[in-house]
Amino acid sequence: MAALCESFTLCGLGPSGAVGLGGGLLALEPGPDPDHVLLTDRGRTATLFKVSDQKPLGCWSVKHGQIITCPVVCNFETHEYIAVHDDKVLRIWKNKDINLDKVFKATLSADVYRIHSLPNGGPVVLFKGGGVRTLDVLLEAPQQEIENIISDEIIKWSEAFMEGQQPVLIFATEKDGDFFVYVQKLKMNSLHKYKLEQQELSRPLSFTAYIKNQIITLLCLYSNDSVYEVLMPLQQNSEEEQILSKSLLLKLSVSGSVLKGTSFVVLDKDHIAILGSLAAPGEESKECLTIWNTKFQTLQTSKELPLGTSGQLWCYEEKFFFTHGKVLTVMMYKCETSSLAAAVGKLKDSQTPDVSSFVDWNTLADEELVVSFQSEQSVALKSESKMTLRSKRNTVAKVQPDTLSVGQILLNLKDASTTVFENELRQLVSKAQMPDFQASIGCVITALIKRCKTNPKYYPQNLLLHIVETRDLSYSLCPDLMAVALEKKDVHLLQICLQRFPDIPEEITYVCLKVFLSISEAYLQTTDVNLESVISYTDVEFNNKEVKTEIVENGFNAELEHDIWNTKITKETHPMADGELCPVGPQKAALLNAVLQSAYSEAFLLPHLKNLPAQQAVLFLRYLYYLYVKCSEKINTTLPGTRCPTISQIMDWMCLLLDAHFTVMVMLPEAKELLSNLHKFVRAQVRFYSELNKIEGSLQELQRRNHERDSQTYSIEVLEFI
What strands, in cross-sheet order, belong to the sheet with 122-127? Predict the structure, then answer.
């Protein structure tokens, strides 16, 4: 039994995408950790992503005019990254490296086709002429001559494996319509060449292979909508070219529909996944991802992809990776031991786990939901076939809470009234024991968001708040939640999401910041916002933007303070120009504090922050300056209260905002005085801490003397600080 589960977006691929893969995706390779993948675009950039958080961990680019010509891979033994640009230039770097111009470089003597990295065998380099070298051997003499084995043939596909301690490289070539397969055993320095048996009126489109029991199994996806299997013994005595015969493994047709496959991967010994276009007679073809059972020749499951794909499919750690529209999508899947009952959809509930908790109403059609629950519903229908209508209703009401899966409940409630819908979901969320609990809660939120989109007047704010506040969720489990909250201007829900979600994309963080800065103070006074992060250091009574603050001097003398502010300091309020009066109301301050404490990557937030309107940037900088002054007033440089931003977070955001808008702020008249005051305040603090550093040695000496003094003896000592 195989099933497609929940999916999520890893990153955007368009010009405004998260990693700027505007030229499309060249390849996806595993990273140094099972949760990491390396993306290489068709241009200059390679990006390392953490899949579970949808967060980029690093991004490297070659110079303008240079092009990465084969997929970037990770050396699993050294945790280094290897790239080839302009066919012959090899680059090797580590995570800490930023500028690829300054990392290791070697110019090779021949063009590289691809580098394969093996977990226990190191990187293997395949050249376009068919020559093969391990990376270690190649680095000993980068300009060594590389033999040309395949003459006029063109390499179409390659893969590397470990058979015991022996690295094995397989690659397929094409010349004048004929296809050849080469098997290279590196340690034994042996190469065997095979010719694929020709197929009339069709040709191979894609290859994949695996090794088991000294037998290489090569699978070929042909243009006649079929998958063929070719077996090759790893141990081969004859060095002559042999013709490989193939056998039909799978015909890609079901109920009159034919799948035109573009790429495929092997999942286990009985299942393969194929990406392609499914066409029925008289209907328009639809791109979809399918899983087939090769043992019983059946289509197990499919997922329509209406936004289109690039035809590329990758599979790592039980996850599919493919482009869908302008994003790179990750989809989970499950494969179980193949049996005839599972293959034809007749497996009983006790034999199959519930996969309905991964149902996504945004992506799964109703008929797909029905298919996934087919066996459960068929059992229920058989048991009810002889009951009266009233007894049926009683049975359904009695069975539903205990036996129905999350997906079935959501499907049954799709057309229910608003009251019934919310009541059932509240009961569902309150269940302590639930399989795949986090994913199930994500499905509940997705169902609520789906209904919001269907009915614009419907918005269950209280229920959404309750779920987010009481359950440990993440942005990736419910990616549409914050988008709907932004559309509804639900600042309270946005505030809670910013505080609780650990994986919010930088683009969403920026949009929240922009919305918070643009909303009027009058509107915010009518909304419910959590003020716990500001109530301890501001007066929550909002009156003409005056917020009284408690001032505690932190070691500054009166002359120094007068030099900084050029005005007399009072104990209650301060002039607006001097920056000590909070420039925003308490509600807006609490929302901005939530933004300040959210996780982000500076490299990916900065491009978005540059789009912030100048007036909003100045207002935000005024508030950051206000917080900076407030922190500096306290001896421990921390704000009182809970969920307050730290001085490090405040300074990081201040530096980031100045990096994004410094030129604009220098030109704005209303910002000049703010920048001047900020400069004076920072200069005064540097001067103050410099003075403290001067007496640090004396204070340490005093502390040492205190420890040495006899506590029983009374004395008066005079210490002179020079």
Answer: 112-118, 122-127, 132-134
Token pair of 152, please? 């006029």
Q: What is the Cα–Cα distance from 522 to 704, expressed in whole angstroms?
A: 58
What distance in Å separates the CA atoms of residue 118 and residue 43, rounded to the nearest whole number? 25
Q: Rounded to whole angstroms, what are the CA distances from 332 to 88, 318, 339, 443, 710?
A: 37, 6, 21, 15, 71
- Nearest 5°: the CA angle 632, 634, 637 is 60
Whole-number Å distance between alpha carbons of 675 and 656? 14
Ramachandran assignment for 394, one of left (phi > 0), alpha (psi -120 to 50 degrees), beta (any other): alpha
pLDDT single digits (tens) 610-644:
899 989 999 999 999 888 888 877 666 677 767 78
3-state secondary structure of 264: strand
**Which CA distances in Å does 609 have to 16, 60, 650, 709?**
14, 21, 15, 58
CB neighbour list of residue 654: distance below 8 Å, 6 or more residues apart: 621, 624, 625, 628
Nearest to 578 by CA among 551, 554, 555: 551
| 84-128: pLDDT as tens digits | 999 999 999 999 988 888 999 999 999 999 999 998 888 999 999
DSSP 551: -
DSSP code, position 645: P
